[in-house]
Amino acid sequence: MSTAIADGRVMAGRYLRHVVRAPEEIVIYFSLPIMFVLVFGYVFGSGMSVPGGGGYREFLIPGVFVMTMLYGIGATATGIAVDAGRGVVDRFRSMPMARSALISGRVIADLARALLETAVLVVCGLLVGWRWHLGLGNVLAAIGLLLLLRLALSCAGVALGLAAPNPDTVATIVFPLAFPLSALSNVFVAPEMMPGWLGTISEWNPISATTTALRELFGNPGLGSDSWPAEHAMLLAVAWPVLLIAIFGPVSVRLYRRLGQ
Amino acid sequence: MIVAEELRKRYRGGQGTIALDGFRLDVPGGIVHGLLGPNGAGKTTAVRVLSTLLGFDSGRAEVAGADVVRQPGLVRERIALTGQYAAVDELLSGRQNLVLFGRLHHLRPRDARRRADELLERFGLTDAAGRSAKDYSGGMRRRLDLAASLIRRPQVLFLDEPTTGLDPRSRNQVWDAVRGLVTEGTTVLLTTQYLEEADQLAGRISVVDAGRIVAEGTPDELKSALGADRLEVVIRESDRLGDAAAVVARIAGGRPDTDLDRRAVRVPLMGDRVETLTVTLQALREAGITVANVGIHQPTLDEAFLHLTGRRAAMPADPAPPPAAPPPSSPAASSSAAPARASASSEVTA
């Protein structure tokens, strides 16, 4: 067990060194949420209204945090698919290291990245006028929920990366998967403003659950809805990720075991 | 050191290719054992099975005293694998790679760094230590890969086509490194498509075909089984081919092949080659036969291989027999030789 933890840490260090040695990837990666803040916050935002009143950018920023976690799935899946397609995984698998280390290392590294991304976005948010209103304890709880969601998405990303036939396929799968998930949520538009059935899908979307929970914790606007998922956002913001981990964790381990068979 | 008994492995999906079909191997410690065979013969599958990367359907395998199926962890502690494709992290530097693998071998950080520096030095990579592995040349990458396999001196090292695609200089460096290892007591299982590589490195060679061993022996034993180098004499007038064959048979011994299309006589070259060559040419001249060309050829892997499996005799008209050919039934001495396909011959020097 201690070997598994030590090997996972070494492997996490490997993935973080990749970020340091090829920083352009993370810069490109940051450009997307920042662009969303600017485009939605300033261009479309002027035409948007927030249910219950309040500034649109205050409404938007918690969702951008969540969306950034979601798009991290691409980096995870690509990284794993690149590894899986190269001989280096054969070396790992022929070494007396913990078999789980490749996956746990990637997940740990993803969480470290998620912290960095969150820090950058907090600064961006503050610059465009977003504030938290309910104390530092709530901020920490919000970050905890973000990391939990990222952990779940990371597991899903690993599974996707291992299932994909090659790294190029990952890129073509991730965007059509992640884009509807972020668009069909309450990140940009309140579900009450969508046509009935779309609104329902959007309310039950895991992305919406964490977003609503963050708005509650930060004291940001947009909490008008009295639907069940909106009322129990905090519960869903924990339950959804736990469910995803319970599914994709074992799937990832299985796929990794079967790699190269 | 390596024992394989009746290994069978069929890949799922596709046509369910049978990769190993009763594969047997018994390699004692401290030598280089070569697995020689063409692409698709099952060499890589055998290595992947023995290095615990791949499961198999039936049979038994033991490596460095541990059972591959029941004690894979123990096997992994005692082996290292250097595959066809350099198994290093492309994004990391050479040094970072070796430190990483050292840490995953559970060396302490300081020891991992020290071992990395030793290995970089030993493989002539110190100057390139800080550069990303993706910027390394093919030879450097393969050396880094080999260095990574030696972080903890393995009891058994699997080398899967270690010099495929390398220039002669890098190839020699890899060979030197392998020889060095064996003197330190490591057992090496080397797969190769090149007769010369097996000849250079291996104390014993197993020839693999269609997932099983079809011949085994020392390089010398195999070479004589494969047929030695051939003397080929091309004459000017095709109607003298029979006479030429008689002369060649008398001087060089053996039973010559004749090729009417090319007006060539070929015979295995035994004993003193220069003497045989000189006397043969002289005898031909005395018989009034004009020689247009003369040459000495080592059998290519293909020829050697066909010779071993006897398939060439079975199909004189087909230069590239399919793997599922029936066993030989026609007379052994065919009058047609399979054209060389393998690239080995061009690199071979006698």
From TrEMBL, chain A:
Pfam families: ABC2_membrane. Its main location: membrane. The keyword Mitochondrion does not apply. Belongs to the ABC-2 integral membrane protein family. PROSITE patterns: ABC_TM2 (PS51012). The chain crosses the membrane at residues 26-44, 64-89, 110-133, 139-163, 170-189, 233-256. The keyword Oxidoreductase does not apply. Residues 24-259 form the ABC transmembrane type-2 domain. Keywords: Antibiotic resistance, Cell membrane, Membrane, Transmembrane, Transmembrane helix, Transport. One of its GO terms (molecular function) is ABC-type transporter activity. One of its GO terms (biological process) is response to antibiotic. It is found in: Cell membrane; Membrane. It comes from the Bacteria. It is a multi-pass membrane protein. This is Transport permease protein. It comes from Actinoplanes italicus. GO terms for cellular component: ATP-binding cassette (ABC) transporter complex. InterPro entries: ABC2_TM (IPR013525), ABC2_TM_bact-type (IPR047817), ABC_2_transport (IPR000412), Nod_factor_ABC_transporter (IPR051784).
From TrEMBL, chain B:
The keyword NADP does not apply. SMART domains: AAA (SM00382). GO terms for molecular function: ATP binding; ATP hydrolysis activity. One of its GO terms (biological process) is doxorubicin transport. InterPro entries: AAA+_ATPase, ABC_transporter-like_ATP-bd, ABC_transporter-like_CS, ABC_transporter_ATP-binding, DrrA, P-loop_NTPase. SUPFAM superfamilies: P-loop containing nucleoside triphosphate hydrolases (SSF52540). GO terms for cellular component: plasma membrane. Residues 318-330 have a biased composition (Pro residues). Residues 331-350 have a biased composition (Low complexity). It is a peripheral membrane protein. The keyword Transport applies. Residues 2-235 form the ABC transporter domain. Keywords: Antibiotic resistance, ATP-binding, Cell membrane, Membrane, Nucleotide-binding, Translocase, Transport. It is found in: Cell membrane. It comes from the Bacteria. Its main location: membrane. Pfam families: ABC_tran. Residues 312-350 are annotated as: Disordered. Belongs to the ABC transporter superfamily. Drug exporter-1 (DrugE1) (TC 3.A.1.105) family. This is ABC-2 type transport system ATP-binding protein. It comes from Actinoplanes italicus. The lineage of its organism: Bacteria, Bacillati, Actinomycetota, Actinomycetes, Micromonosporales.
